[in-house]
């Protein structure tokens, strides 16, 4: 048996190989949507990602006989550790071939790196923030993945169990079928609740005329401010600051189609809820082979703005300020989304990963024709 060699990344060429290993490992898997090269390189770059102001990170490659067989990121999010009173080192962007000595070498490298910096436990897969891919897939391996979520082979959680990891928390993802015919969700329920919320509380749904209106009004930053407050008490959440919001706003606006963005405002015109969707880019990114350049951008552009026969709608973010969650603000999104989905020919929508114990989030789907088709988990152990 050949030895597994672990090396820390120190050059741009190695970082590119780190990102591309995910594509190479999954290029023949019809369900995997690989990391988008350019976006991932920016996320992992200390000079461009503002999360590095409060995060430490190191990136490692595993090789056997000179061939790359695994990768992992080691991350310490100081802000999250202080918020939750922990000393955790995170592992993220982890991939490996189905050989126990490879996964063991990668995890032991993260453990050693964390212990040297005073950490007492290890958890993952997690990124720098909740807007990074997180949670290892544990069910739904035969379902098409979505952009910015983790796809992994079924042997991954088996390797972690062998290394002594236990499940710490879990997420579920739903396939929500666009209502047709006389299904309950296509009747008056959501529309009635939305009407009551409008009449009783003065809520209103707002769409935007142009990207320029969104940009000039700083609406992406305002929406992320709502997400900060809506998610603040959810597992491991790392609050975004203004610099991070500006960074994410710039990235989101590149692909954002205004017709898939809506916000709920109160009587003072303040944003109290956010809904962000887009046509699924999973197939487009597969066709682009995870690279925008030189020609991958065409597949993205075609899917976003030229293609007319979409099948899947990705619900990227839905968040409502806690004080408005029991007042029907969510219903305005669904009352808007249902006729939109029908008129645009979508067959179903994919929810973003939701924590299993986020009961308020789980209940919002109860009147829709849907099913849980993916489950994922974070795993941890003491060092």
3D architecture notes:
With 383 residues, this protein is an alpha+beta fold. The chain folds into two domains: 5-172, Gcn5-related N-acetyltransferase (GNAT) (Aminopeptidase), CATH 3.40.630.30; 176-374, 3-Layer(aba) Sandwich (Aminopeptidase), CATH 3.40.630.30. Helices cover 36% and strands 26% of the residues. It is built from 13 helices and 14 strands. Strands 1, 2, 3, 4, 5, 6, 7, 8, 9, 10, 11, 12, 13 and 14 form a 14-stranded mixed beta sheet that branches. Strand 11, helix 12 (329-343) and strand 12 (348-351) form a beta-alpha-beta unit. The radius of gyration is 21 Å and the shape is globular. The two termini are 28 Å apart. The mean pLDDT is 88.
Quick structural gist:
The protein contains 13 helices and 14 strands. It has 383 residues and is α+β, with helices and mostly antiparallel strands. The chain has two domains: 5-172, Aminopeptidase, CATH 3.40.630.30; 176-374, Aminopeptidase, CATH 3.40.630.
Largest sheet: 14 strands, mixed
Question: What coarse outline follows from CA principal-axis ratios?
Answer: globular
Q: Please give the count of helices.
A: 13
CATH superfamily of the largest domain: Gcn5-related N-acetyltransferase (GNAT)
**How many β-strands, per DSSP?**
14
What is the count of distinct domains? 2
Order of helices and strands: EHHEEHEHEEHEHEHHHEEHHEHEEHE
Structural class: alpha+beta
Strand-residue proportion: 25-35%
């Amino acid at each position: 048996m050949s030895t597994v060699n672990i090396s820390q990344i120190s050059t741009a060429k190695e970082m590119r190989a780190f990102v591309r290993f995910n594509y190479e490992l999954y290029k023949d898997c019809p369900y995997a949507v690989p990391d988008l090269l350019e976006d991932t390189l920016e996320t992992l770059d200390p000079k461009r990602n503002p999360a590095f102001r409060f995060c430490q990170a190191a990136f490692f490659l595993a090789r056997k006989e000179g061939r790359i067989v695994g990768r992992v990121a080691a991350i310490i999010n100081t802000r999250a550790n202080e918020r939750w009173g922990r000393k955790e080192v995170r592992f993220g962007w982890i991939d490996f071939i189905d050989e126990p000595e490879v996964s063991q070498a990668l995890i032991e490298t993260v453990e050693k790196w964390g212990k040297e910096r005073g950490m007492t436990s290890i958890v993952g897969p997690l990124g720098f923030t909740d807007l990074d891919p997180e949670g290892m897939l544990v069910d739904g391996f035969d379902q098409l993945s979505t952009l910015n979520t983790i796809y992994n082979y079924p042997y991954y959680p088996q390797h972690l169990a062998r290394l002594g990891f236990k499940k710490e928390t879990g997420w579920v993802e739903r396939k929500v079928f666009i209502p047709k015919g006389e299904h309950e969700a296509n009747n008056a329920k959501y529309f009635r609740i939305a009407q009551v919320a409008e009449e009783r509380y003065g809520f209103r749904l707002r769409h935007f005329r142009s990207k320029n209106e969104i940009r000039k009004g700083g609406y992406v930053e305002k929406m992320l401010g709502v997400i900060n407050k809506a998610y603040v008490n959810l597992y491991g959440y790392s609050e975004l600051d203004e610099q991070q919001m500006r960074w994410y706003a710039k990235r989101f606006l590149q692909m954002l189609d205004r017709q898939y963005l809506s916000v709920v405002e109160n009587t003072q015109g303040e944003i109290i809820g956010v809904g962000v969707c887009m046509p699924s880019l999973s197939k487009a990114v597969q066709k682009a082979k995870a690279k925008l350049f030189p020609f991958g951008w065409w597949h993205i552009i075609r899917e976003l703005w030229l293609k007319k026969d979409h099948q899947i709608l990705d619900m990227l973010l839905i968040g409502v300020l806690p004080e408005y969650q029991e007042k029907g603000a969510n219903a305005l999104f669904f009352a808007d989304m249902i006729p939109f989905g029908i008129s645009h020919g979508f067959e179903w929508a994919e929810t973003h990963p939701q924590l299993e114990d986020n009961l308020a989030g789980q209940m919002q789907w109860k009147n829709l024709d849907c099913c849980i088709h993916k489950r994922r988990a974070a795993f941890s152990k003491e060092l």
